[in-house]
Specification:
It comes from Oidiodendron maius (strain Zn). Its cofactor is FMN. The protein is an alpha/beta fold. The chain binds flavin mononucleotide and benzoyl-formic acid.
Length: 413
Protein backbone atom coordinates (compact mmCIF):
# COMPACT_ATOMS: atom_id res chain seq x y z
CA UNK A 1 0.00 0.00 0.00
CA UNK A 2 1.42 3.40 -0.97
CA UNK A 3 1.84 6.16 1.58
CA UNK A 4 -0.77 8.37 0.07
CA UNK A 5 -4.33 7.39 0.87
CA UNK A 6 -7.12 9.60 -0.34
CA UNK A 7 -9.08 11.35 2.40
CA UNK A 8 -12.30 9.47 1.68
CA UNK A 9 -10.62 6.11 2.33
CA UNK A 10 -9.11 7.12 5.68
CA UNK A 11 -11.95 5.95 7.94
CA UNK A 12 -11.86 2.53 6.31
CA UNK A 13 -8.07 2.36 6.65
CA UNK A 14 -8.28 3.09 10.35
CA UNK A 15 -10.83 0.38 11.00
CA UNK A 16 -8.87 -2.12 8.91
CA UNK A 17 -5.77 -1.40 10.99
CA UNK A 18 -7.80 -2.10 14.14
CA UNK A 19 -8.32 -5.73 13.14
CA UNK A 20 -4.63 -6.14 12.34
CA UNK A 21 -3.64 -4.54 15.67
CA UNK A 22 -5.80 -7.02 17.59
CA UNK A 23 -4.08 -9.99 15.93
CA UNK A 24 -0.64 -8.46 16.35
CA UNK A 25 -1.24 -7.78 20.04
CA UNK A 26 -2.33 -11.37 20.54
CA UNK A 27 0.47 -13.00 18.55
CA UNK A 28 3.39 -10.80 19.52
CA UNK A 29 2.50 -9.44 22.96
CA UNK A 30 0.07 -11.93 24.40
CA UNK A 31 -2.45 -9.11 24.86
CA UNK A 32 -6.13 -9.62 24.13
CA UNK A 33 -9.16 -7.34 23.72
CA UNK A 34 -10.49 -6.02 27.06
CA UNK A 35 -14.04 -6.06 25.76
CA UNK A 36 -15.10 -9.13 23.80
CA UNK A 37 -15.41 -8.74 20.03
CA UNK A 38 -18.14 -11.39 20.06
CA UNK A 39 -21.55 -9.68 19.90
CA UNK A 40 -23.18 -12.68 21.59
CA UNK A 41 -20.85 -12.50 24.60
CA UNK A 42 -20.97 -8.75 25.17
CA UNK A 43 -24.17 -8.82 27.19
CA UNK A 44 -22.78 -11.53 29.48
CA UNK A 45 -19.51 -9.67 30.00
CA UNK A 46 -21.47 -6.56 30.98
CA UNK A 47 -23.67 -8.59 33.33
CA UNK A 48 -20.55 -10.00 35.00
CA UNK A 49 -18.80 -6.65 35.38
CA UNK A 50 -21.60 -4.25 36.28
CA UNK A 51 -23.89 -3.65 39.23
CA UNK A 52 -27.23 -5.36 38.61
CA UNK A 53 -29.31 -2.18 38.52
CA UNK A 54 -27.11 -0.55 35.88
CA UNK A 55 -26.92 -3.69 33.76
CA UNK A 56 -30.66 -4.24 33.97
CA UNK A 57 -31.35 -0.69 32.90
CA UNK A 58 -29.45 -1.30 29.66
CA UNK A 59 -30.66 -4.84 29.12
CA UNK A 60 -34.28 -4.56 30.20
CA UNK A 61 -36.79 -4.44 27.41
CA UNK A 62 -40.57 -4.30 27.58
CA UNK A 63 -42.62 -7.33 28.60
CA UNK A 64 -41.20 -10.76 27.82
CA UNK A 65 -38.64 -9.35 25.35
CA UNK A 66 -40.64 -10.65 22.38
CA UNK A 67 -39.89 -7.49 20.43
CA UNK A 68 -36.22 -7.52 21.41
CA UNK A 69 -36.05 -11.06 20.05
CA UNK A 70 -37.97 -10.03 16.92
CA UNK A 71 -35.43 -7.25 16.31
CA UNK A 72 -32.68 -9.87 16.07
CA UNK A 73 -34.71 -12.46 14.16
CA UNK A 74 -35.59 -9.85 11.55
CA UNK A 75 -31.88 -9.53 10.72
CA UNK A 76 -31.47 -13.30 10.55
CA UNK A 77 -34.07 -13.51 7.78
CA UNK A 78 -32.00 -11.43 5.38
CA UNK A 79 -28.83 -12.87 3.87
CA UNK A 80 -26.06 -11.11 2.00
CA UNK A 81 -24.92 -12.49 -1.35
CA UNK A 82 -21.20 -11.61 -1.69
CA UNK A 83 -19.70 -10.63 -5.05
CA UNK A 84 -16.14 -11.53 -6.09
CA UNK A 85 -13.23 -9.98 -7.98
CA UNK A 86 -14.40 -6.41 -7.52
CA UNK A 87 -12.08 -3.50 -6.70
CA UNK A 88 -13.07 -3.19 -3.04
CA UNK A 89 -9.74 -3.18 -1.22
CA UNK A 90 -10.07 0.58 -0.63
CA UNK A 91 -13.45 1.60 0.67
CA UNK A 92 -15.27 4.89 1.00
CA UNK A 93 -17.60 4.78 4.02
CA UNK A 94 -18.78 8.38 3.76
CA UNK A 95 -22.43 9.44 3.41
CA UNK A 96 -24.23 12.75 3.02
CA UNK A 97 -27.13 13.37 5.39
CA UNK A 98 -29.10 16.61 5.15
CA UNK A 99 -26.38 18.14 3.00
CA UNK A 100 -23.55 17.39 5.44
CA UNK A 101 -20.88 14.77 4.76
CA UNK A 102 -20.26 12.21 7.52
CA UNK A 103 -17.29 9.84 7.46
CA UNK A 104 -19.51 6.79 8.14
CA UNK A 105 -23.27 6.03 8.07
CA UNK A 106 -23.08 4.91 11.72
CA UNK A 107 -24.25 7.02 14.68
CA UNK A 108 -24.28 6.63 18.46
CA UNK A 109 -27.96 6.20 19.38
CA UNK A 110 -29.21 8.67 22.00
CA UNK A 111 -28.98 6.98 25.40
CA UNK A 112 -29.92 8.53 28.74
CA UNK A 113 -28.35 8.29 32.19
CA UNK A 114 -24.76 7.32 31.27
CA UNK A 115 -23.50 7.91 34.81
CA UNK A 116 -25.59 4.98 35.98
CA UNK A 117 -23.31 2.80 33.84
CA UNK A 118 -19.95 4.51 34.40
CA UNK A 119 -18.61 7.77 35.84
CA UNK A 120 -17.14 8.67 32.42
CA UNK A 121 -20.74 9.53 31.50
CA UNK A 122 -21.93 11.40 28.42
CA UNK A 123 -18.81 13.56 28.30
CA UNK A 124 -16.63 10.46 27.96
CA UNK A 125 -18.84 9.09 25.20
CA UNK A 126 -19.01 12.45 23.40
CA UNK A 127 -15.21 12.57 23.46
CA UNK A 128 -14.91 9.05 22.03
CA UNK A 129 -17.46 9.86 19.33
CA UNK A 130 -15.41 12.87 18.25
CA UNK A 131 -12.25 10.78 18.20
CA UNK A 132 -13.92 8.19 15.96
CA UNK A 133 -15.65 10.91 13.91
CA UNK A 134 -18.98 9.20 14.54
CA UNK A 135 -22.05 11.33 15.29
CA UNK A 136 -22.90 11.69 18.97
CA UNK A 137 -26.59 12.18 19.78
CA UNK A 138 -27.10 13.79 23.18
CA UNK A 139 -30.19 12.62 25.05
CA UNK A 140 -32.54 14.93 26.96
CA UNK A 141 -32.30 12.26 29.71
CA UNK A 142 -28.53 12.71 30.06
CA UNK A 143 -26.56 13.00 33.29
CA UNK A 144 -24.37 15.72 31.73
CA UNK A 145 -25.66 19.09 30.58
CA UNK A 146 -26.17 19.91 26.90
CA UNK A 147 -23.27 22.37 27.09
CA UNK A 148 -20.79 20.10 28.90
CA UNK A 149 -21.33 17.25 26.44
CA UNK A 150 -20.87 19.66 23.52
CA UNK A 151 -17.57 20.84 25.00
CA UNK A 152 -16.37 17.26 25.39
CA UNK A 153 -17.42 16.55 21.79
CA UNK A 154 -15.36 19.53 20.52
CA UNK A 155 -15.37 19.59 16.74
CA UNK A 156 -17.09 16.21 16.46
CA UNK A 157 -20.44 15.89 14.69
CA UNK A 158 -23.35 16.05 17.16
CA UNK A 159 -27.15 15.97 17.15
CA UNK A 160 -29.59 16.67 19.99
CA UNK A 161 -32.39 14.28 20.99
CA UNK A 162 -35.48 15.90 22.48
CA UNK A 163 -37.81 14.35 24.98
CA UNK A 164 -40.50 16.85 24.23
CA UNK A 165 -41.56 18.85 27.31
CA UNK A 166 -45.21 19.76 27.88
CA UNK A 167 -44.15 23.30 28.69
CA UNK A 168 -43.37 25.24 25.49
CA UNK A 169 -41.12 27.74 27.23
CA UNK A 170 -38.89 24.92 28.42
CA UNK A 171 -38.93 23.30 24.97
CA UNK A 172 -37.74 26.57 23.47
CA UNK A 173 -35.03 26.91 26.06
CA UNK A 174 -33.71 23.38 25.30
CA UNK A 175 -33.77 24.05 21.56
CA UNK A 176 -31.89 27.33 21.98
CA UNK A 177 -29.27 25.74 24.19
CA UNK A 178 -28.75 22.86 21.75
CA UNK A 179 -28.49 25.20 18.81
CA UNK A 180 -26.04 27.51 20.59
CA UNK A 181 -23.93 24.50 21.59
CA UNK A 182 -23.46 23.38 17.98
CA UNK A 183 -25.89 20.43 17.74
CA UNK A 184 -26.71 20.42 14.02
CA UNK A 185 -29.76 18.18 13.85
CA UNK A 186 -32.75 17.70 16.11
CA UNK A 187 -34.08 14.22 16.87
CA UNK A 188 -37.54 14.17 18.49
CA UNK A 189 -38.27 10.84 20.14
CA UNK A 190 -41.97 10.07 19.81
CA UNK A 191 -42.22 6.56 21.26
CA UNK A 192 -41.27 7.24 24.87
CA UNK A 193 -43.66 9.88 26.21
CA UNK A 194 -44.14 7.37 29.01
CA UNK A 195 -41.96 4.36 29.88
CA UNK A 196 -42.91 0.90 28.64
CA UNK A 197 -43.57 -1.98 31.07
CA UNK A 198 -40.04 -3.21 31.79
CA UNK A 199 -39.96 -6.17 34.21
CA UNK A 200 -36.17 -6.22 34.72
CA UNK A 201 -36.35 -2.66 36.04
CA UNK A 202 -39.70 -3.04 37.79
CA UNK A 203 -38.55 -6.08 39.78
CA UNK A 204 -35.45 -4.21 40.93
CA UNK A 205 -37.53 -1.08 41.60
CA UNK A 206 -35.02 0.96 39.68
CA UNK A 207 -35.37 3.93 37.36
CA UNK A 208 -32.73 6.67 37.61
CA UNK A 209 -34.66 9.86 37.04
CA UNK A 210 -36.85 9.71 40.19
CA UNK A 211 -33.74 10.63 42.15
CA UNK A 212 -32.68 13.26 39.64
CA UNK A 213 -30.22 11.07 37.72
CA UNK A 214 -30.70 11.76 34.01
CA UNK A 215 -32.46 15.04 34.70
CA UNK A 216 -29.47 17.27 33.99
CA UNK A 217 -30.98 18.92 30.91
CA UNK A 218 -33.72 20.24 33.20
CA UNK A 219 -31.65 20.94 36.29
CA UNK A 220 -29.22 23.03 34.24
CA UNK A 221 -31.97 24.86 32.38
CA UNK A 222 -32.51 28.51 33.34
CA UNK A 223 -36.23 28.48 32.52
CA UNK A 224 -36.89 25.27 34.47
CA UNK A 225 -34.84 26.53 37.43
CA UNK A 226 -36.68 29.81 37.53
CA UNK A 227 -40.10 28.15 37.42
CA UNK A 228 -39.08 25.66 40.10
CA UNK A 229 -37.84 28.41 42.41
CA UNK A 230 -41.06 30.35 41.89
CA UNK A 231 -43.26 27.34 42.72
CA UNK A 232 -41.21 25.74 45.50
CA UNK A 233 -39.32 28.66 47.00
CA UNK A 234 -36.00 26.74 46.88
CA UNK A 235 -33.26 25.93 44.38
CA UNK A 236 -33.29 22.60 42.51
CA UNK A 237 -30.31 21.35 44.57
CA UNK A 238 -32.20 21.94 47.82
CA UNK A 239 -35.06 19.59 46.89
CA UNK A 240 -33.86 17.17 44.24
CA UNK A 241 -36.79 14.77 44.61
CA UNK A 242 -39.41 17.48 43.97
CA UNK A 243 -37.32 18.94 41.17
CA UNK A 244 -37.03 15.49 39.59
CA UNK A 245 -40.79 14.97 39.91
CA UNK A 246 -41.48 18.35 38.26
CA UNK A 247 -39.04 17.72 35.44
CA UNK A 248 -40.30 14.23 34.72
CA UNK A 249 -43.89 15.43 34.76
CA UNK A 250 -42.82 17.70 31.93
CA UNK A 251 -40.97 15.19 29.77
CA UNK A 252 -42.46 11.77 30.67
CA UNK A 253 -45.92 13.04 31.52
CA UNK A 254 -47.89 10.16 30.16
CA UNK A 255 -49.45 12.61 27.76
CA UNK A 256 -48.45 12.53 24.10
CA UNK A 257 -48.27 15.54 21.82
CA UNK A 258 -50.05 15.71 18.45
CA UNK A 259 -48.67 15.62 14.91
CA UNK A 260 -49.85 19.19 14.41
CA UNK A 261 -47.68 20.38 17.29
CA UNK A 262 -44.60 19.53 15.24
CA UNK A 263 -45.29 22.84 13.49
CA UNK A 264 -44.28 24.61 16.68
CA UNK A 265 -40.91 22.88 16.82
CA UNK A 266 -40.35 23.35 13.12
CA UNK A 267 -40.83 27.08 13.47
CA UNK A 268 -38.22 27.23 16.25
CA UNK A 269 -35.45 24.99 14.93
CA UNK A 270 -33.51 26.08 11.88
CA UNK A 271 -31.65 22.80 11.15
CA UNK A 272 -32.93 19.42 10.00
CA UNK A 273 -35.52 17.63 12.17
CA UNK A 274 -35.82 13.86 12.46
CA UNK A 275 -38.57 12.00 14.34
CA UNK A 276 -37.53 8.80 16.10
CA UNK A 277 -39.68 5.76 16.84
CA UNK A 278 -41.52 5.30 13.53
CA UNK A 279 -42.78 1.76 12.77
CA UNK A 280 -46.04 2.28 10.86
CA UNK A 281 -45.96 3.37 7.24
CA UNK A 282 -48.79 5.85 7.83
CA UNK A 283 -46.74 7.55 10.56
CA UNK A 284 -43.84 7.84 8.12
CA UNK A 285 -46.24 9.55 5.72
CA UNK A 286 -47.49 11.85 8.51
CA UNK A 287 -43.92 12.82 9.36
CA UNK A 288 -43.36 13.70 5.72
CA UNK A 289 -46.60 15.65 5.58
CA UNK A 290 -45.59 17.65 8.65
CA UNK A 291 -42.39 18.67 6.89
CA UNK A 292 -39.95 16.52 8.83
CA UNK A 293 -36.57 16.05 7.13
CA UNK A 294 -36.11 12.49 8.28
CA UNK A 295 -37.36 9.63 10.40
CA UNK A 296 -35.68 6.98 12.48
CA UNK A 297 -37.34 3.62 12.01
CA UNK A 298 -36.95 2.33 15.56
CA UNK A 299 -38.84 0.54 18.30
CA UNK A 300 -36.52 1.87 21.01
CA UNK A 301 -34.73 -1.45 21.18
CA UNK A 302 -37.90 -3.28 22.20
CA UNK A 303 -38.10 -1.22 25.40
CA UNK A 304 -41.54 0.25 24.78
CA UNK A 305 -44.17 -1.97 23.11
CA UNK A 306 -43.59 -5.67 23.64
CA UNK A 307 -45.22 -7.70 20.88
CA UNK A 308 -44.44 -5.00 18.33
CA UNK A 309 -42.80 -6.15 15.13
CA UNK A 310 -39.04 -6.34 14.65
CA UNK A 311 -37.82 -2.92 13.57
CA UNK A 312 -36.11 -4.21 10.41
CA UNK A 313 -39.44 -5.74 9.37
CA UNK A 314 -40.88 -2.24 9.21
CA UNK A 315 -38.05 -0.76 7.16
CA UNK A 316 -38.67 -1.88 3.52
CA UNK A 317 -42.29 -0.73 3.36
CA UNK A 318 -41.45 2.62 4.93
CA UNK A 319 -38.52 3.19 2.57
CA UNK A 320 -40.79 2.32 -0.35
CA UNK A 321 -43.41 4.86 0.82
CA UNK A 322 -41.24 7.86 1.79
CA UNK A 323 -37.60 7.04 1.01
CA UNK A 324 -37.47 9.23 -2.08
CA UNK A 325 -38.78 12.27 -0.22
CA UNK A 326 -37.06 12.11 3.14
CA UNK A 327 -34.06 10.58 4.89
CA UNK A 328 -34.80 7.25 6.54
CA UNK A 329 -32.48 6.19 9.36
CA UNK A 330 -32.69 2.96 11.32
CA UNK A 331 -32.09 1.40 14.74
CA UNK A 332 -33.03 -1.48 17.05
CA UNK A 333 -31.19 -4.77 17.13
CA UNK A 334 -28.05 -3.81 15.20
CA UNK A 335 -25.20 -5.94 16.56
CA UNK A 336 -22.78 -6.73 13.70
CA UNK A 337 -21.22 -5.21 10.61
CA UNK A 338 -23.47 -7.37 8.45
CA UNK A 339 -26.53 -5.97 10.28
CA UNK A 340 -25.47 -2.43 9.35
CA UNK A 341 -25.04 -3.49 5.71
CA UNK A 342 -28.45 -5.18 5.64
CA UNK A 343 -30.18 -2.05 6.96
CA UNK A 344 -28.37 0.07 4.37
CA UNK A 345 -29.29 -2.37 1.60
CA UNK A 346 -32.94 -2.11 2.67
CA UNK A 347 -32.78 1.64 2.22
CA UNK A 348 -31.63 3.17 5.51
CA UNK A 349 -29.24 6.09 4.97
CA UNK A 350 -27.78 5.85 8.47
CA UNK A 351 -27.77 3.31 11.28
CA UNK A 352 -27.80 4.02 15.03
CA UNK A 353 -26.05 1.76 17.50
CA UNK A 354 -27.51 1.43 21.00
CA UNK A 355 -26.88 -1.31 23.57
CA UNK A 356 -23.48 -2.60 22.30
CA UNK A 357 -21.44 0.49 23.17
CA UNK A 358 -23.51 1.11 26.31
CA UNK A 359 -22.40 -2.33 27.52
CA UNK A 360 -18.83 -1.32 26.64
CA UNK A 361 -19.28 1.84 28.73
CA UNK A 362 -20.55 -0.25 31.62
CA UNK A 363 -17.65 -2.71 31.36
CA UNK A 364 -14.79 -0.20 31.44
CA UNK A 365 -15.94 3.34 30.76
CA UNK A 366 -15.25 5.38 27.66
CA UNK A 367 -12.41 3.05 26.62
CA UNK A 368 -14.94 0.21 26.52
CA UNK A 369 -17.45 2.22 24.48
CA UNK A 370 -14.65 3.05 22.07
CA UNK A 371 -13.46 -0.54 21.80
CA UNK A 372 -16.96 -1.76 20.97
CA UNK A 373 -17.50 0.89 18.30
CA UNK A 374 -14.03 0.40 16.79
CA UNK A 375 -14.74 -3.32 16.58
CA UNK A 376 -18.18 -2.87 15.08
CA UNK A 377 -16.90 -0.40 12.49
CA UNK A 378 -13.96 -2.69 11.65
CA UNK A 379 -16.38 -5.58 11.17
CA UNK A 380 -18.64 -3.34 9.04
CA UNK A 381 -15.77 -2.13 6.88
CA UNK A 382 -14.25 -5.57 6.40
CA UNK A 383 -17.60 -7.23 5.66
CA UNK A 384 -18.43 -4.52 3.11
CA UNK A 385 -15.21 -5.27 1.26
CA UNK A 386 -15.68 -9.02 1.39
CA UNK A 387 -19.24 -8.62 0.12
CA UNK A 388 -17.97 -6.66 -2.87
CA UNK A 389 -19.04 -3.18 -1.85
CA UNK A 390 -16.73 -0.20 -2.29
CA UNK A 391 -18.96 2.68 -1.25
CA UNK A 392 -22.17 3.06 0.71
CA UNK A 393 -24.23 4.02 -2.34
CA UNK A 394 -23.61 0.49 -3.66
CA UNK A 395 -25.64 -1.04 -0.83
CA UNK A 396 -28.89 -2.20 -2.42
CA UNK A 397 -31.34 -5.07 -2.66
CA UNK A 398 -29.36 -6.88 -5.40
CA UNK A 399 -27.01 -8.35 -2.77
CA UNK A 400 -29.75 -9.37 -0.34
CA UNK A 401 -32.02 -12.37 -0.26
CA UNK A 402 -34.82 -13.10 2.14
CA UNK A 403 -34.75 -16.65 3.46
CA UNK A 404 -38.11 -17.64 4.84
CA UNK A 405 -37.54 -21.28 5.72
CA UNK A 406 -37.49 -22.23 9.40
CA UNK A 407 -34.66 -23.74 11.35
CA UNK A 408 -32.45 -20.69 11.08
CA UNK A 409 -31.96 -20.52 14.82
CA UNK A 410 -29.72 -18.35 16.87
CA UNK A 411 -26.52 -20.29 17.63
CA UNK A 412 -24.30 -19.35 20.48
CA UNK A 413 -20.65 -18.96 19.56
C1 LIG B 1 -29.98 2.29 28.33
C2 LIG B 1 -30.72 2.91 27.19
C3 LIG B 1 -31.16 4.21 27.30
C4 LIG B 1 -31.82 4.81 26.22
N1 LIG B 1 -32.16 6.13 26.31
C5 LIG B 1 -32.72 6.75 25.24
C6 LIG B 1 -32.95 8.14 25.26
O1 LIG B 1 -32.64 8.82 26.23
N2 LIG B 1 -33.52 8.69 24.19
C7 LIG B 1 -33.87 7.97 23.06
O2 LIG B 1 -34.39 8.52 22.10
N3 LIG B 1 -33.62 6.65 23.02
C8 LIG B 1 -33.04 6.03 24.07
N4 LIG B 1 -32.76 4.70 23.98
C9 LIG B 1 -33.06 3.95 22.75
C10 LIG B 1 -31.89 4.00 21.76
O3 LIG B 1 -31.71 5.28 21.22
C11 LIG B 1 -32.10 3.03 20.59
O4 LIG B 1 -33.33 3.30 19.97
C12 LIG B 1 -32.08 1.56 21.04
O5 LIG B 1 -31.04 1.35 21.99
C13 LIG B 1 -31.88 0.65 19.84
O6 LIG B 1 -32.02 -0.68 20.22
P1 LIG B 1 -30.76 -1.66 20.49
O7 LIG B 1 -29.96 -1.02 21.54
O8 LIG B 1 -31.35 -2.95 20.92
O9 LIG B 1 -30.03 -1.76 19.17
C14 LIG B 1 -32.09 4.07 25.05
C15 LIG B 1 -31.65 2.75 24.96
C16 LIG B 1 -30.97 2.16 26.01
C17 LIG B 1 -30.48 0.76 25.85
O1 LIG C 1 -34.58 3.85 29.04
C1 LIG C 1 -34.90 4.38 27.98
O2 LIG C 1 -35.16 3.74 26.97
C2 LIG C 1 -34.96 5.80 27.93
O3 LIG C 1 -35.30 6.31 26.92
C3 LIG C 1 -34.63 6.58 29.12
C4 LIG C 1 -35.59 7.28 29.76
C5 LIG C 1 -35.28 7.99 30.90
C6 LIG C 1 -34.01 8.00 31.40
C7 LIG C 1 -33.02 7.30 30.77
C8 LIG C 1 -33.33 6.59 29.62
Amino acid sequence: MGDHVEQRFLASQRFKRHQFNIYENGMLRNQFPTVTTNPNKLEQQARDSMEAKGFNFIFGGAGEHATMDANRLAFRQWKLIPRMLLPTSQRDLSVTLFGIEYSTPVLFAPVGAHCVFHADGECGVAEVAADLDITYIHSTAATASIEDAARANGNGPRWFQLYWPQNDEITLSLLNRASRSGYSTLVITLDTWSLGWRPANLDGGFVPFIKGVGDQAGFSDPVFRQQFKKNYGVEVEEDIISAAAEWNKDIFSGQAHTWEQLEFIKSHWSGPIVVKGIQHVDDARMALKMGMDGIIVSNHGGRQVDGALGSLEALPEIVHAVGKDMTVLFDSGVRTGADIIKALCLGAKGVLIGRPWVYGLGICGKAGAKEVMMGLLADFDQTLGLTGIRSISQCNRSILRRITYGGDRHTSL
